[in-house]
C-alpha cells in the first residue's frame, strides 16, 4: 500500500490542495464579477498544478523532517518540477497557448518571483536565473532528469485528480534529457511565441491577468496555514465607510475666501461624480490648500456607495502618497472620519503600509495571523507610499505581488503625482489603463501641478484654472540674475533675522542639501541668543530622525512664530502655513509646491516666496547636485527675465513646464517594453530615486531605550523565517530612529558608532541632538 504524499509536515498534498481551493473561493468574494470571470477557468487548474513537484522522492524525504534533511537542497526544490509537469500536461491536453504560459509562469514563481522571459528572445544571449526556461540546462536540468525517475506518478494522480498516468512515462524515463528539451521547445516555440504576437494593449492585459492569477495563488497558498480560525478569513465582512462622515468633519468652517473656494470646488466635484459615475480615471488639479484630502475621501466613499446601490461589492480604497510625513497627516484625517462615525479604528477599517507602519492589525489575533492580514492588505482602506503601491503593481517579487489582486477592484487615490519621475510616465499610462479595464478599479490623480501622464482623465473640476486665478496668497520673487555663495546667503539670513523675530514672523528657509541647510541653521543659531524661547528655530533634514521630524512638523503646525530651516522634504503636502518662504532654486513643480506653504489659508496680505540661486565654495549650484538637469533647464527658460510671478499666473507656467518635459525627457518607453516582454527591468525603487548609493544606517537608541533588547532577542531566534518575522515586527521602530548617511572618503562609522548587525550601527551617546540632528565631536556637520 503506497503512502500518501505530503505537502507540509502535518498536511497531505490532497488536503493542501483543498485548502488552496477554499482560499481561492474566499478571495473571489472580495472581487467584482469581471475579475472573477477573467480567471474563473484557470483557478481550479492552478490549485492542483502548483505543487506537483512535491511528489518527488527527495521532497517527500525532506518534508518528513525538514530540519535534518541531508540531501542535495536542489533536489527538494519543487517548483522546477512543477513547471515541467505543467508544461507536459498543457501540451498533452492542447491548452490555449497563453493560458498555458500564464499557469506555467505562476507555478514556477510562486515561491519567489514571477519569472522573466529570457533576453535571447530579443536577440541577446544572456540567461537570467529568473528566466522561465532556465530549467533546460545546467544543474537544474540534471536535477530534473533525476527527479523524473523518482516521481510517484500513481499517487500524485490520486492526490490531484490529474490524468498523469496517461502520459508516456516509459519514454520520459527512458530519455529524460530529451523530454526536458522537448518541453523547452514547446515553451519557446508555442507559448512565448504567442506572447510575442500580442499588440501592446493585449500584452498589458495578459501580463496583468497573469499577475492577478499569481497574486490570488500566493495569498490562497498561505491563507489557511496562517490563520488560526479559518472562519475569520473565509468570509468577508465589509466595514462600511459612510460619505456623510466627511460632511461631519467639515462642519461649518469660517467664512473666508479660501473656504468659499473650497466649498465651490467640492460642489462642482460632487456634480461631476454624479454625472460621470461610470468613468474610470479622474483627475483633480487644484491649488494647494484646497482640501484635496477630504475631497478625495468624498470621491472614494461616493464611488463605494454607488457600487453598493448597483449590488456590487464595494471596492476597497487605496490612498497613495510620496512622503511619510504626508502619510502621517493623511492617516490622521481618515482617523477623524472614523471618529465622526463613532468607529474605533483597527486594521479592518484602516491600514497603513510603509516602512514606519507599526504592523498592528486588531486585538485578539495571533501574531502570525496579524502579520498575514497586514501583509495582504486585508482592510477596507489602505494608506501607502508610491514605493509600496508601484512594487505591488510592477515588481515581480512574490512578497509584493501577493497584494496585486487588491488593485484590480479598488478606488485608488494617487496624490502628489507630480513627484513621479518622467521615466515612469509611459509605463504607468499603459499599465493603469489596463488595470482599470481588468476589473472595477477607478483612479483619482491629484496634484497642484498635474502632469498629464495618464490620458483620458475626467477632471472632477473642469474649470480648475479659475481656482488658481482666484487665489492671491503669494508671489514668487525671482532672484536668479546672479548666484549667491552660501556664505553670502548665510550673512543675508543673519541680517534679516532680527526683523523676523521682532515682527513675530513664521519663516521657512528650504535648501537643496543637508550640508547647505545645516550651515544656514548654524548661521542663524549664532544670532539667536534668548529669542528661541519666544520664536523657536527648527531644523528639518535627513540628519534628524523621522521621529523627531514628525514631532517638529506638529510643533510648526501649531501656528506660533518660528523660523524653520529645512531640506526639500517639507514641501509636498505638509500642511503648514508660513508668512514667508525662501527657497534655493529648484524645478518649477518643487517651487510651486513649497510656495503652497506660504500664506496657505489666505488670511494675510500676499506673502513672499523668494527664490535664490546658491553655489558652494567651488561655484557649483546646490540645485545641480540634487535635481535632473533637464528639469532645471526648462525651469530657467520659463522664468528667464521675470522678476515676479503671482499665484494667479502660476498655472500656465506649470502646464508649459510639463509639456516641455514630455518632449525632452525619456518617458520610460524601454521600461514599458521590458514589462510587456516579461524581461528583467530596473527595480521600482531605482526608477523612483535613482541607484542606491552605499550608506550607513545609524540608530539613535536613546529615542527607544527598549529596542536594543528586542533586537537582541530577534537575533537569537533560531528558525530563519521566524527570525525574519521578528525583525519585520521591529522594522517600523528601527526606521523611526534611524539616520542614513552616504559613505564618503575619510569617514568610517566606527568613529561615532558601534557595529551591530544587518548593516546597522548604534550611534554613541553625544553624537545626536534633537535640536540639530547628527553631530560629531561637538560640531554639527554632514558627511
TrEMBL record:
One of its GO terms (molecular function) is hydrolase activity. The keyword Cytoplasm does not apply. It comes from the Bacteria. SMART domains: DEXDc, HELICc. Coiled coil: none annotated. SUPFAM superfamilies: P-loop containing nucleoside triphosphate hydrolases. It holds the Pfam family Cas3_HD. Keywords: Antiviral defense, ATP-binding, Helicase, Hydrolase, Metal-binding, Nuclease, Nucleotide-binding. Residues 273-468 form the Helicase ATP-binding domain. Residues 6-223 form the HD Cas3-type domain. PROSITE patterns: HD_CAS3 (PS51643), HELICASE_ATP_BIND_1 (PS51192), HELICASE_CTER (PS51194). GO terms for biological process: defense response to virus. Residues 485-646 form the Helicase C-terminal domain. Signal peptide: none annotated. PANTHER family: CRISPR-ASSOCIATED ENDONUCLEASE_HELICASE CAS3, DEAD-BOX ATP-DEPENDENT RNA HELICASE 47, MITOCHONDRIAL. In the N-terminal section; belongs to the CRISPR-associated nuclease Cas3-HD family. This is CRISPR-associated HD domain protein.
Amino acid at each position: 500500500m503506497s503512502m500518501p504524499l505530503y505537502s507540509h509536515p502535518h498536511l497531505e498534498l490532497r488536503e493542501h490542495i483543498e485548502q488552496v481551493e477554499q482560499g481561492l473561493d474566499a478571495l473571489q468574494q472580495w472581487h467584482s464579477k469581471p475579475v472573477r470571470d477573467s480567471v474563473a477557468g484557470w483557478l481550479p487548474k492552478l490549485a492542483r498544478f502548483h505543487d506537483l513537484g512535491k511528489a518527488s522522492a527527495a521532497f517527500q524525504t525532506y518534508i518528513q523532517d525538514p530540519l535534518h534533511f541531508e540531501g542535495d537542497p536542489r533536489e527538494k526544490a519543487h517548483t522546477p518540477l512543477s513547471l515541467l509537469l505543467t508544461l507536459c500536461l498543457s501540451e498533452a491536453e492542447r491548452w490555449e497557448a497563453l493560458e498555458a504560459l500564464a499557469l506555467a509562469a505562476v507555478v514556477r514563481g510562486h515561491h519567489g518571483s514571477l519569472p522573466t522571459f529570457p533576453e535571447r528572445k530579443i536577440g541577446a544571449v544572456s540567461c537570467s536565473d529568473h528566466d522561465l526556461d532556465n530549467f533546460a540546462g545546467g544543474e537544474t536540468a540534471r536535477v530534473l532528469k533525476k527527479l523524473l525517475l523518482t516521481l510517484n506518478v500513481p499517487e500524485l494522480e490520486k492526490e490531484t485528480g490529474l490524468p498523469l498516468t496517461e502520459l508516456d512515462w516509459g519514454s520520459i524515463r527512458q530519455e529524460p534529457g530529451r523530454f526536458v528539451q522537448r518541453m523547452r521547445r514547446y515553451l519557446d516555440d508555442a507559448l512565448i511565441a504567442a506572447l510575442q504576437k500580442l499588440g501592446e494593449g493585449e500584452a498589458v492585459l495578459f501580463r496583468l491577468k497573469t499577475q492577478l492569477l499569481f497574486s490570488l495563488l500566493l495569498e490562497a497558498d498561505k491563507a489557511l496555514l496562517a490563520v488560526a480560525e479559518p472562519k475569520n478569513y473565509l468570509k468577508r465582512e465589509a466595514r462600511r465607510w459612510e460619505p456623510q462622515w466627511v460632511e461631519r468633519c467639515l462642519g461649518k468652517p469660517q467664512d473666508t475666501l479660501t473656504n468659499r473656494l473650497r466649498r465651490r470646488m467640492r460642489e462642482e466635484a460632487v456634480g461631476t461624480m454624479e454625472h460621470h459615475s461610470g468613468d474610470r480615471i479622474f483627475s483633480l488639479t487644484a491649488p494647494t490648500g484646497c482640501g484635496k484630502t477630504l475631497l478625495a475621501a468624498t470621491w472614494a466613499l461616493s464611488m463605494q456607495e454607488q457600487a453598493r446601490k448597483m449590488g456590487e461589492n464595494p471596492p476597497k480604497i487605496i490612498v497613495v502618497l510620496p512622503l511619510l510625513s504626508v502619510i502621517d497627516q493623511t492617516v490622521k484625517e481618515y482617523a477623524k472620519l472614523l471618529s465622526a462615525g463613532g468607529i474605533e479604528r483597527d486594521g479592518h477599517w484602516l491600514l497603513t503600509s510603509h516602512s514606519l507602519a507599526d504592523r498592528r492589525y486588531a486585538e485578539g489575533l495571533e501574531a502570525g495571523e496579524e502579520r498575514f492580514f497586514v501583509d495582504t492588505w486585508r482592510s477596507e482602506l489602505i494608506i501607502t507610499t508610491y514605493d509600496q503601491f508601484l512594487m505591488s503593481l510592477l515588481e515581480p517579487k512574490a512578497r509584493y505581488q501577493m497584494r496585486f489582486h487588491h488593485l484590480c477592484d479598488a478606488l485608488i487615490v494617487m496624490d502628489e503625482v507630480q513627484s513621479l519621475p518622467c521615466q515612469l510616465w509611459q509605463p504607468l499610462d499603459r499599465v493603469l489603463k489596463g488595470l482599470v479595464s481588468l476589473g472595477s478599479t477607478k483612479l483619482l490623480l491629484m496634484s497642484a501641478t498635474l502632469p498629464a501622464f495618464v490620458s483620458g482623465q475626467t477632471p472632477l473640476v473642469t474649470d480648475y484654472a479659475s481656482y488658481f486665478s482666484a487665489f492671491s496668497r503669494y508671489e514668487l520673487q525671482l532672484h536668479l540674475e546672479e548666484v549667491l555663495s552660501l556664505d553670502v546667503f548665510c550673512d543675508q539670513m543673519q541680517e534679516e533675522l532680527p526683523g523676523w523675530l521682532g515682527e513675530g514672523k513664521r519663516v521657512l528657509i528650504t535648501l537643496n542639501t543637508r550640508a547647505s541647510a545645516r550651515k544656514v541653521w548654524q548661521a542663524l543659531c549664532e544670532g539667536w541668543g534668548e529669542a528661541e524661547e519666544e520664536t523657536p528655530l527648527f531644523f528639518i533634514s535627513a540628519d534628524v530622525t523621522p521621529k523627531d521630524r514628525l514631532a517638529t512638523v506638529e510643533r510648526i503646525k501649531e501656528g506660533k512664530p518660528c523660523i524653520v530651516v529645512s531640506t526639500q522634504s517639507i514641501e509636498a503636502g505638509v500642511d503648514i502655513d508660513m508668512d514667508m518662504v525662501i527657497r534655493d532654486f529648484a524645478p518649477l513643480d518643487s517651487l510651486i509646491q513649497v510656495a503652497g506653504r506660504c500664506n496657505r489659508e489666505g488670511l494675510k496680505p500676499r506673502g513672499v516666496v523668494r527664490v535664490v540661486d546658491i553655489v558652494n565654495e567651488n561655484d557649483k549650484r546646490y540645485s545641480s547636485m540634487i535635481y535632473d538637469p533637464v528639469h532645471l533647464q526648462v525651469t530657467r527658460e520659463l522664468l528667464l527675465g521675470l522678476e515676479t510671478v503671482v499665484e494667479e499666473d502660476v498655472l500656465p507656467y506649470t502646464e508649459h513646464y510639463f509639456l516641455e518635459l514630455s518632449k525632452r525627457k525619456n518617458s520610460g518607453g524601454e521600461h514599458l517594453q521590458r514589462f510587456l516582454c516579461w524581461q528583467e527591468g530596473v527595480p521600482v525603487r531605482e526608477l523612483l530615486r535613482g541607484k542606491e548609493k552605499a550608506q550607513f544606517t545609524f540608530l539613535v537608541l536613546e529615542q527607544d531605550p527598549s529596542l536594543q533588547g528586542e533586537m537582541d532577542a530577534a537575533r537569537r531566534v533560531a528558525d530563519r523565517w521566524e527570525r525574519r518575522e521578528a525583525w519585520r515586527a521591529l522594522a517600523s521602530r528601527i526606521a523611526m530612529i534611524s539616520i542614513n548617511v552616504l559613505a564618503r572618503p575619510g569617514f568610517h562609522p566606527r568613529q561615532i558608532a558601534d557595529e551591530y548587525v544587518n548593516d546597522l550601527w548604534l550611534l554613541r551617546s553625544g553624537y545626536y541632538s534633537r535640536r540639530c540632528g547628527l553631530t560629531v565631536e561637538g560640531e554639527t556637520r554632514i558627511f
